[in-house]
Write a structure and sequence with these properties.
heterodimer, A: 102 residues, mainly alpha, 3 helices, elongated, B: 684 residues, two-stranded antiparallel ribbon, 25 helices, 4% strand
Amino acid sequence: MTITLTHFLLISAVLFTLGLYAVLTRRNAIMVLMGVELILNSANINFLAFSRFGGMDIEGQMAAIFVIILAAAEAAIALAIVLNIYKRFNTVNVDEISFLKD
Amino acid sequence: MIPELNIALAILFIPLISFLVLIFFGKRFMERAGLVGATFLGIDLALAIYILVARLSSGEVWDFTFTWIDFHTVVNNVPLRLDIGIMVDNLTAVMLIVVTLISFLVHLFSLAYMKGDVRFSRYYANLGIFTFSMLGIVLTNNYLLMYVFWELVGLSSYLLIGHWYEKKSASDAAKKAFVVNRVGDLGFFVGIMIVWMQYSTLTYTGLFSAIGSGVIPFDSSAWLTAAGLLIFCGAVGKSAQFPLHVWLPDAMEGPTPVSALIHAATMVAAGVYLVARTFPMLTADALMVIAYFGAVTAFIAATIAIVQNDIKKILAYSTVSQLGYMVMGLGVGAYTAGVMHLVTHAAFKAGLFLASGSVIYAMHHALHHLHDHHTDAQDVRHMGGLKSKMPVTFWTMTIFTLAISGVPLTSGFLSKDEILAGTLAYSHFTGHTIIPIIGFLVAGLTAFYMFRMLILTFMGEHKVAERFEHIHESPRVMIVPLMVLAALSFFIFFSLNPINASHGWFFEKMSYPTVAVPEALASTPTAEFVEEIHHQHSLAMILSVSVSGLGILFAFVMYFWKRVSADSFEQALKPVHTFLYRKWYFDELYDATAVAGTLGIARLLAWFDGAVIDGIVNGAAWVTKMVAVMSSKFDSLVVDGAVNFTAFFAGMLGQTVQKVQTGKVQTYMIFAIIGLMLLLALYV
């Protein structure tokens, strides 16, 4: 059995769904961030798959590298935010942080 | 302009100046206001005497006419313009003397009579404007100005009758005089309009020459008769003829000298003067109606005068009766006799009123002295025996009474005699025998009631001795006018012949005017009529002297010798007495018809005003109010409702949607993803 683009896309989709699920369901902000990482990585798989099987060539890999850099930056900033949230609310449970409501 | 007319104008305007001076500066003159008025009138009288003398020695008529308004159009081939002016003929000259003389004497008399009155200067001012208006009537040469002055007389008599307007009866009497006069004046005005429409001229000469040229209004002789009778309506009002005589007795509420001036000599004479002026245009039919009106008036008033007890009321009804006599005289065609009776009556009736004023003055002072405020100072039953206390008043009053009764040697005899001869001649030509019968009957009645008044007032015993003590002769300024008028009540001033005036200066100068109406419509030609009067004269004289004598005799029998009790007569003829005492129920009749009708219409109109007009106004207000209420309801319910609903709806919506906003990031994310998926499902 040959591995085709479809397999990659399936894995990517599963990964995206898992990430999305984590983002939407986890109470812990850190877990939410980890979900975001999963989503970003599923996008990376897509980029690489399209680089290999589609017509994107090197551009797909370039975009994946950008995404990795972006994810690193995101993780740094998001974790800083989470730290600040913890400082302020003494919790990282996103259900309890509903100040947007007011 | 003829120089004499300048003097005539001066005569006219001097009383007006007197009025203006006294009305504006009267208060400053205080007690002397009367003297100011009397001085003006004295000058006026002197000028009037000059005019009369100059007039009688001159031939032509002094007439000055100018065009007041020119309409620059031609109607019925006559240029349409209003001509006015003044004219002095013999009639005017004599009337000038009558008016100024009586007015002057009244001015003098009032100096004492009205002394201490609250509105002394205004009284004299009103006398001035009255004299002015009256002189205006006799001086104009056209119906237009005459109508103007006619109304002015109405106004000034209103002011004079209502001089003591604090008294309800006086203000009512003034109103009554004014309103009743207006009724007659309406007819007068319509008559003037008929004449104006047809002839486009209102001057006497122009009008009579137009009629004389054979033009008849609207080609119908009935219209000419109607015009004459409508103008006569004015005389019915002013001269207190039946059926408009009711105002004159009430007008006795005015001061007594006023009664002498306006109700004896001038205002009431204006109507007779009007008939005399209009005489040339009166048709035979019109004259007959006028004669009957005069006769009926004379009779009704004489019967009422018999039973009255108020001295002024007796004189008032005798005035009405004598005015009826004059009108009857003119109506039967005895022009000069009618005018002469106007002049002689003016003198002796003014005298009678002034003498009664003198009596009332004395009675009033006596009653005042005794602090008696209940006894009526004018009731003849409270008088009696005044002869010894007031000799001058008594003797002058006796002369006046003889004159009005038509006793020979007096002026009244001459004029009354001529009128009666005229009625006899009239019945000879036309067969209206009722007129001379009424004439002689009234002559007898007049003598009776006048002597009744004289006897009750001056003869017999005074009933209250204490009061009698305090009665004194009036001051000289009051009795001098009486003496002057008494002197003028003798025949000598009118004719040298004491039993027949027809050759005296008066008849010579006051000749019959040329009749203007076409021969077919006119009454008996003047020459024939005068001839017949001469035939009837002796008969008239004998009859009139005997009926007067009978009347006087009855008066003495009943009231002096008391052979026949007046009271038992009264009891025996109770219904008749009541009927006469209540003045033939004329006032009641008018109250029930004219007054009640007017009030009814007024009430109807008031109701209409209150119910319909006010209803419409109130209805409009109600509708406006209702619209306002509805609009406010609409505002508060619909507009506010819409606004509130919008707000409420927005609130509701907000409340509902608010629930979605949990503040939880993950929820938002779910929404975003669902939204994305929906978009994808829709567009991909």
